[in-house]
Amino acid sequence: MSDALYHDAILALAKDRRHAGRLDAPTHSHTSDNPLCGDRVTIDIERASDGTVRRIGHFVRGCVLCQAAAAALAASVEGRGPAAFAAAESALARVLAGQNDPENGVWAAFLPVARHTSRLDCVRLPLVAAKPVFEA
Amino acid sequence: MSDALYHDAILALAKDRRHAGRLDAPTHSHTSDNPLCGDRVTIDIERASDGTVRRIGHFVRGCVLCQAAAAALAASVEGRGPAAFAAAESALARVLAGQNDPENGVWAAFLPVARHTSRLDCVRLPLVAAKPVFEA
Amino acid sequence: MTQALRSQFPILTPSLAYLDSAATAQMPLAVLDAVRAFETSSRANVKRGVHRLAEAATDAYAAARSDVAAYLGVPPSEIVFTSGCTAALNLVAHSFGALMKPGDAVLLSALEHHSNLVPWQMLAARSGIELRFLDVDAEGRIDLSALETKLDARVKLVSLAHVSNVTGSVLDVASVVATAAKVGARVLLDGAQRAPHGPLDLKTLGVDFYAFGGHKVFAPHGVGVLWARRELLDAMPPFLGGGEMIAQVELAHSTWAAAPAKFEAGTPPIGAAIGLGAACRWLGTLPWAEIAATEARLCQRLLDGLAATPGVRVLGPQSLQARAPVVSFALEGTHPHDICQIMDSAGVALRGGHHCAQPLHKRFDLAGTTRASLALYSDDSDIDAFFAGLSKVRKILL
Amino acid sequence: MTQALRSQFPILTPSLAYLDSAATAQMPLAVLDAVRAFETSSRANVKRGVHRLAEAATDAYAAARSDVAAYLGVPPSEIVFTSGCTAALNLVAHSFGALMKPGDAVLLSALEHHSNLVPWQMLAARSGIELRFLDVDAEGRIDLSALETKLDARVKLVSLAHVSNVTGSVLDVASVVATAAKVGARVLLDGAQRAPHGPLDLKTLGVDFYAFGGHKVFAPHGVGVLWARRELLDAMPPFLGGGEMIAQVELAHSTWAAAPAKFEAGTPPIGAAIGLGAACRWLGTLPWAEIAATEARLCQRLLDGLAATPGVRVLGPQSLQARAPVVSFALEGTHPHDICQIMDSAGVALRGGHHCAQPLHKRFDLAGTTRASLALYSDDSDIDAFFAGLSKVRKILL
Ligand SMILES: Cc1ncc(COP(=O)(O)O)c(C=O)c1O
Ligand SMILES: Cc1ncc(COP(=O)(O)O)c(C=O)c1O
Q1: Of B76, B111, C58, D218, which is most buried, counting CB atoms within 10 Å of its CB?
Q2: Residue whose CB lies within 8 A of the most ligand 1 atoms, among D24, D115, D194, D355, for a mutation test
């Protein structure tokens, strides 16, 4: 049953290294961790003066779901303005509430997580780490 | 069922006022109480130089079982030597263990108490209070 | 209605008049079955596991918290599960006590249960906190006339029984809250005897802390509830240390999780908490107006019958006003144990003694009393049995 | 034999390989039924009542104490029922801690469960007690080579895990007891992970305190045991205050009951304690030599299979010597949560994370491990399922 969690789209996201690693010169950076499981995510961004996220880097010590969520976040916001982060947050909230919505985009891959309360925080951690950099 | 506790012999003992009340000039005296139920027993004795208990008085704030046991104790030891108290202790121990024995004497009345663990201490209290005066 | 309720309690056979609910209330099938279902289909430790039993257990434990919160009208995040009412009161004495300074004071009353007295005596001895006491009036109520004079800025907490477990008197909470607010004192209610008598709306009550235990609200023993306002939970240091209440642990130093976890060290009483959640959910579905009317009518029968019995003295209000169905009495020339024992032989379960309220009994110059207490399953047959038993008591003992 | 045992656990269906017994062990019918029987036929509060339910409950609670005592080889009067292992450890930290002076020390180890670490940190912060630590060796055992040097007359207590909940290593109790005796230090064992693996003879072990929880020995959550020598129970002040632990209560001051009552404030977890008594009685009837042989053989299968799996590192002894069947491991390139989740989809219940032992994991430079833990109902099918699951994990994640 929880097989469904590790379907191809999730595994592909987790293995997507395009935004993996720290940025050399981030304009904003933040780290959050989940003390319960020891997971830790750092999000770096390089933000243009008009608010556009020019580049994003993530450094994840965490599970597949956490890594996949970091990749999904990077894909959702790079090259976009600040509204993209809010949109990602809404999409993830919908998905983790089990709502299938065409607006979910890349986040739709996480729909099976909705049934696993113990894993919700794994998926949320990258967005928790990112929130301060986007609100800065 | 616990009716059996309040049979005639017990009630008669409890109402037996012959040794009720403090002595005027006890040679030995001791008070014990059971903080759980607030019961309190004082035992006074007037002991002859040969160890004979010339007189005994009891002052009881307690239930019927406690009063009856105080009366039974008084009846068992008055006019007797120190061995009588030890004999009373043994008889009560047997009775509260449910053993019917011809040696139980007056204590046989307490046999039904054996089945009521919560009441054992009610019956024991007068002997607990008396022990120091007999061992003094 | 009562018959339908009563049939949900397997222990309540026709030959048993259970009038000892203030000591421990009986458990309905809804609770028995919820606990058994947990133990046989989703038993696991909570919080840290991802396997299906652990997830089911964690979800059930969280749902129990929500169900309790709903019964009290507060957010689940303000509900701390403890091992009982006594443990909840000790938690406050330690964790809120740690915020107090020598010379600060706690205001209690002379009718408190030992569980709302001894923890404060221990705090006083530990930390130089002063204890002050409200007296009890002739009706067995906390005398609030001295409230203003006893409350000054040094009083940081007023901790009182919402309902007395001896006299049944119900506290005038609004007065206490209003007066305490003037000096900035917090108010804790010991709700052990109030919680079984229907849903609460803690936000409307206006208090700061509320404590009660599971076994008196038709749930298992070994679980209790402390509710506190969020800002207090955040401000108080933890009480017990161990697993689950931490954020980061190093050998020399640790940091704490957010409340309620901060106050739930170690594996919680999972099955019992799930039972308590089921009890609150079940209680939330009941027709409380009807139940309250029945409890009041039966309580009046007890009061009237006792008033008509020679030699009886009731320790508590004679009227139903601000009174819960807990009735303690003394019968001249008899001892509570003898009354209870003979009552038992008549199929009536009562409790005799000081009911963990020695100072109150001392105040009334009694070593103990005999208590009859009602719950939602009580009916006229219980009261009939009580008075039949009382006749027998008088015949045998007087 | 295992089959006959297993059939007594209704939750253990063929599709479940429950390898999470170190977190919470499952409950046999003997315990389930004892608890249900209490709740449906003799539920009442204990100690103070004389009606027949109260007497039956009081007798059952006393019998549970005797059954636990028999399992441990000690007198019932030295058994304190607590709300869990964590509560038992906190009790000692407070009540024995109250007998210590600033500058006194407690000796712990780097592999302790947070429940045997945080209470001592809190004591240290409260009372100026020094904490000292034994290191952990490469095999995941407490390194006793420094024992002599860390023990001096300032050390009043050595508190160590009898069995590690992560590495499964079993403490060399005799060495610890002998060395502690030289400086007059008391020894406490955290037996949470030892108690499920067979009867104990505490008098022969020679320690002073022993603590464990009910839910890991096949009994309900919400109950635990503290055993301590009589003279310690007599010397220590109480921890929690409330009903049942007192002798005389006045408003200003109280006196205490004799132990164990002194340490059991409030209504105890009656049903859970009765369940624990039933569990100990049941455990006392089992063929332990056979069970130990089976647990060892299955543990060896786990160790061998893991040793043969590329990328696996076992955190604990590789051999069975002085080792309990608790096996934690890391699989390079994977995260414990992912392992546990995929294992769950293969019907295998494991636990992943720091297992409430952050300092130990830090010592091995890991954020977490995955743990498989066995109990008397474990059999070859569980191990088969584990390795089938592990193949699946590797296929999906690597
Ligand atoms: C070694 C050890 N000590 C203490 C504990 C704490 O036990 P509990 O959580 O049941 O209070 C545990 C289990 O969690 C443990 O494994
Ligand atoms: C008013 C009151 N407070 C506190 C308690 C203590 O509750 P528990 O013994 O369940 O911890 C009780 C019941 O015993 C009570 O009636």
Answers
A1: D218
A2: D115
